[in-house]
């Protein structure tokens, strides 16, 4: 409570500065204080409280069931055949399970906080220095009170169902890790060879139209695939081969390629080709900044300098993008000199 002579308690105050002029000062807006506490239905009706508790743990167990369904859907709707229908079904049913699992946890947690936990308002004074031992003990008691008011330690069904829902919500994600790498295949071996070979023309993605060197202008960036890729059917591993062989083609002035940091014999008149697969976790490197000659991976912001052999200049990528050796054929079309000379894709495949 403020002192009775406190100027904030007066409606008006008069101040006389050294000039002798009287200045009338209005007091700031008074603190209205906390509004009267409104009791909830669950505070006054034990039956309503029981219904709220049942609703919360039912939502948490629904989340558990949805997580189990997501795992089952991953197995019931496999995508091994590579067909577009199976991919859509797998994504749909697995996604619905994960979405429902997370949504049920969120709704249950909100309903718990609004209908079951204590909602009384209080003011807690704070200070910047370490408190005394008595203050620290008071803080421990505050945690104990919070546990009692939230019901986390007392309401076993709510607590246990929440823990079960949180644990189960992680399982679908762990299950999906199964599809991150080919089964029964050495990843290093699989990523060491692509469709590129000597004399194969570079073609536009997805049209499959070969590219002449004269069509690659300064500052441009082409998304490129092997010309022979268009002959593959989707059931013959089209997506897998494209994911490994996809390339970005750019043209710089020849004197912008830093000597010693570029394999000049792998370029043609300033035209360079690098794997589009980021060496961090395999995301597509798709953004090219022609003024700085930087390539950006949008997933984790790794940046590569094209003028310096696609060297990493920022981000978590561990090594430069693999370069595709190129030249031109007798008709002026860009062709590969060979396959990549190192594995494409994430560097962690090469770790042992």
UniProtKB/TrEMBL annotation:
It is found in: Cell membrane. Keywords: 2Fe-2S, Cell membrane, Disulfide bond, Electron transport, Iron, Iron-sulfur, Membrane, Metal-binding, Oxidoreductase, Respiratory chain, Transmembrane, Transmembrane helix, Transport. The chain crosses the membrane at residues 59-77, 92-112, 162-181. SUPFAM superfamilies: ISP domain. It holds the Pfam family QcrA_N. It is a multi-pass membrane protein. InterPro entries: QcrA_N, Rieske_2Fe-2S, Rieske_2Fe-2S_sf, Rieske_Fe-S_prot, Rieske_Fe-S_prot_C. The keyword Electron transport applies. Its cofactor is [2Fe-2S] cluster. Residues 244-335 form the Rieske domain. Iron-sulfur subunit of the cytochrome bc1 complex, an essential component of the respiratory electron transport chain required for ATP synthesis. The bc1 complex catalyzes the oxidation of menaquinol and the reduction of cytochrome c in the respiratory chain. The bc1 complex operates through a Q-cycle mechanism that couples electron transfer to generation of the proton gradient that drives ATP synthesis. PANTHER family: CYTOCHROME B-C1 COMPLEX SUBUNIT RIESKE, MITOCHONDRIAL (PTHR10134). Belongs to the Rieske iron-sulfur protein family. This is Cytochrome bc1 complex Rieske iron-sulfur subunit. It comes from Microbacterium alkaliflavum.
